[in-house]
C-alpha cells in the first residue's frame, strides 16, 4: 500500500503538537508496511540532517514553496491556505492508494489534477474556524484580532467546500468528532487519538516542587495561559517552600519581552530547549491553564506520558476523554487551581495515583495503530495486514 501525506510543515523534529501527531502517524504507517511519500508546503525548508533523519520512514519528500503577500489578507480563502497554492502544481508521480491531508491548510492539493478525490482522507487537528475564533479572544492586538476573526469566517466557508470533496475524516478530538458525526452522519469519520508510546511511560519522582508548563511560546493562546497563571496563581504559590514555575517551549526566535511585566521570582524559562527530558524528569506536576483553544492540547497528553500528573482548565483537557478527579484535576478559577496544586504537593501518593490512572487510560484508549489500521480496513476490505517491527 502506498500513501501520500501532505503537510503544511515539515513534521521532523517533532517539537510541537501538530508535528508530534503527524510524525507519530508516519512511524505507525511505516510499521504497518506502507510506502510513504511526503509533500510539504511550509515556511522553512528542512535541513539536510532532518531530511536524512526521516529516510528510514519516508521513501520520497516533495517540497514546494509557501508564498504569501499582504494583499492575501483580502482573499476569500484563508491566508494559511492561500499561501500554499503551489500544492496544486506539485509533481505527483505514481498512483496512491490514499492521500492523507494533515489539516485544512493543505486544501490546495485537492486542485492538483493527479489527486483522486475518492482517495483523500483529512486529519482534523483542529476545527480551524473555532480555533481562530479562540485566537482572536486570546490576543490584545487589534490587527491580530481582526486577522484571526477573518480567518475564522473563511475557514467556516472552506469547511463546507471540503465536505463536497472529502468524505473521510480522522479526528484528534473526541469532542469535535462527536459534534461532526451528529452533523454529517454520512461521512466516514472516526476518532483517531494522537500517537502515544505504549509501554514507554515515565514515572514521576515527586521530589522537586516544580510546576511545569511546556508549549510553543510563539502561540498567542499559550502566552495567554502563562500570563493567566503568572497573574492569578503564581503569587499564591510563591510562599510554598521549594516551589518553582518552569516555562519551556519553542519561541521561534520571537521576543519573550511579554514576560517582563510579571514578577518572575521563582520562575525559570527555557527558550527553545534542545531536550525536554530533564524538565519533565525534575517536574512534580504539569499545568495547562489554557483560556482559549480548540482540538486536543497535546501538551496534556505528553505530560502524562512523561510521568507528570496534570492540572488543567476545562479548555486544556477538552476532547481528550480524560475524567476529572480520576485521570486529571480540572480547575477554572485561580483559588481552585491553587488548591489543586497544593493538594498534589501535600499528597505525593495522590499525585502518583493520578498519573498512573491517566497513563492506564491512555494505554486502553489511545492505541493509534489499532484504530488507524482498523479504519483503513473498513475502507479497504482487502487491505493486507503487515507489520514491520
Mean pLDDT: 91
**N-to-C series of helices and strands:** EHEHEHEEHHEHEEHHEEHEHEHEHHH
General form? globular
Separation of the first and last Cα atoms: 17 Å
The CATH class name of the largest domain reads: Alpha Beta
Largest β-sheet summary: 7 strands, parallel
Strand proportion: 15-25%
Radius of gyration: 21 Å
CATH topology of the largest domain: Rossmann fold
CATH architecture of the largest domain: 3-Layer(aba) Sandwich
Contiguous low-pLDDT stretches (5 residues minimum) are 385-389
Identify the CATH homologous superfamily of the largest domain: Glycogen Phosphorylase B
Features:
six-stranded parallel β-sheet, disordered C terminus, 389 residues, Rossmann fold, 2 domains, 13 strands, alpha/beta, globular, 38% helix, seven-stranded parallel β-sheet
Describe the structure.
There is one protein chain. With about 400 residues, the chain is of the alpha/beta class. It has 14 helices and 13 strands. The chain has two domains: about 1-195 and about 365-380, Rossmann fold, CATH 3.40.50.2000; about 210-365, Glycogen Phosphorylase B (Rossmann fold, 3-Layer(aba) Sandwich), CATH 3.40.50.2000. It has a seven-stranded parallel sheet with strand order 3-2-1-4-5-6-7, with helices on both faces. It has a six-stranded parallel sheet with strand order 10-9-8-11-12-13, sandwiched between helices. α4 runs antiparallel to α5 (about 140-165) and α12 (about 335-345) packs across α13. It is about 40% helix and about 15% strand. The relative contact order is 0.12. The two termini are about 15 Å apart.
Amino acid at each position: 500500500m502506498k500513501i501520500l501525506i501532505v503537510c503544511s510543515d515539515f513534521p521532523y523534529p517533532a517539537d510541537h503538537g501538530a508535528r508530534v501527531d503527524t510524525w507519530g502517524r508516519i512511524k505507525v504507517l511505516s510499521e504497518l508496511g506502507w510506502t510513504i511519500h511526503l509533500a510539504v508546503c511550509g515556511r522553512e525548508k528542512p535541513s539536510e540532517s532532518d531530511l536524512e533523519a526521516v529516510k528510514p520512514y519516508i521513501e520520497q519528500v516533495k517540497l514546494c514553496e509557501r508564498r504569501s503577500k499582504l494583499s492575501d489578507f483580502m482573499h476569500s480563502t484563508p491566508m494559511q491556505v492561500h499561501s500554499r497554492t503551489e500544492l496544486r502544481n506539485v509533481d505527483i508521480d505514481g498512483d496512491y492508494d490514499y492521500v492523507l491531508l494533515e489539516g485544512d491548510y493543505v486544501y490546495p492539493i485537492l486542485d492538483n489534477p493527479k489527486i483522486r478525490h475518492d482517495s483523500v482522507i483529512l486529519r482534523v487537528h483542529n476545527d480551524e474556524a473555532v480555533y481562530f475564533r479562540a485566537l482572536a479572544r486570546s490576543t490584545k492586538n487589534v490587527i491580530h484580532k481582526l486577522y484571526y476573526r477573518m480567518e475564522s469566517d473563511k475557514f467556516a466557508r472552506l469547511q463546507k467546500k471540503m465536505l463536497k470533496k472529502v468524505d473521510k475524516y480522522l479526528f484528534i478530538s473526541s469532542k469535535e468528532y462527536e459534534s461532526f458525526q451528529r452533523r454529517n452522519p454520512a461521512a466516514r469519520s472516526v476518532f483517531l487519538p494522537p500517537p502515544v508510546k505504549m509501554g514507554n511511560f515515565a514515572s514521576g519522582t515527586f521530589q522537586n516542587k516544580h510546576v511545569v508548563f511546556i508549549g510553543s511560546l510563539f502561540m498567542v493562546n499559550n502566552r495567554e495561559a502563562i500570563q493567566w497563571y503568572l497573574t492569578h496563581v503564581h503569587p499564591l504559590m510563591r510562599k510554598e517552600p521549594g516551589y518553582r514555575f518552569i516555562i519551556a517551549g519553542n519561541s521561534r526566535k520571537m521576543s519573550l519581552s511579554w514576560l517582563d511585566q510579571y514578577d518572575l521570582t521563582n520562575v525559570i524559562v527555557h527558550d527553545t530547549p534542545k531536550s525536554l527530558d530533564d524538565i519533565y524528569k525534575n517536574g512534580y506536576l504539569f499545568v495547562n491553564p489554557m483560556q482559549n483553544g480548540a482540538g486536543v492540547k497535546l501538551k496534556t497528553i505528553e505530560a502524562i506520558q512523561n510521568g507528570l500528573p496534570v492540572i488543567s482548565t476545562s479548555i486544556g483537557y477538552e476532547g481528550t476523554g480524560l475524567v476529572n478527579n480520576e485521570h486529571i484535576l480540572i480547575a477554572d478559577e485561580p483559588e481552585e487551581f491553587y488548591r489543586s496544586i497544593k493538594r498534589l504537593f501535600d499528597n505525593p501518593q495522590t499525585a502518583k495515583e493520578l498519573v498512573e490512572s491517566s497513563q492506564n487510560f491512555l494505554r486502553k484508549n489511545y492505541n493509534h495503530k489499532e484504530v488507524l489500521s482498523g479504519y483503513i480496513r473498513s475502507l479497504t476490505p482487502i487491505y493486507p495486514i503487515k507489520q514491520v517491527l
